[in-house]
Amino acid sequence: MNRTTLPVKGMSAPTFWIWLLGVIHGRLLHSAGIDPDSETITSGYVVKMIKRFFSACAVRADSGREKLKKAWEEAEYALTVLEACEPALAAGQRMLPEGEIGAQAREREKAARNLAEARAKREHAMQQLTANKSMIQDELLHAQNQADATAERLLSLFSAYANGALRKPVRQRDLPELPRQDMAARILAAPNAVESGMEDAWRRILDRTKEEVSR
Q1: DSSP assignment, residue 35?
Q2: For residues 117 and 138, what is the distance between their CA atoms, to the nearest angstrom?
């Protein structure tokens, strides 16, 4: 899967221009330097780009949540079908032995039909649930890869900027820390206080598919 970056304004600028911007801010305007508290490069540019990064991650979480809406609905329906099939499947295991006649024979035939129908529904629901699980996993992974690639690109730009501003080789500890964004948690979480998140549904999907593998 391609590690494309999130759309962050100003991040596509060539590294040379960011270095030159650091030169201007650090050597001419004296608006960039090492923060005495964090001991990392800081300036209006650095603060602005970090805010844009966090904003881009929030927008990506919202778009991922919207993109997966149909997958969640289908997965929830598949889980409902699987739960509804359980009684018929359990009853099928207790069918009357062959050789019965009359009412008992008809009861056995009915139970056999119900069992066959329940198995068919269960198989279709599991196929749907597995497909939705893969779709959700792919989206969560893609969002995480994008956020990680964006953070790496920003740190690369900050390194060039700091090199220009400080007029010396830049160490890793000179760069601001960009906390890793857990995009899966952000997409699965409730977007606001009114709506509910999908953490519980995701756990049910994982548990159910894991249970199927262990059968």
Answers
A1: -
A2: 32
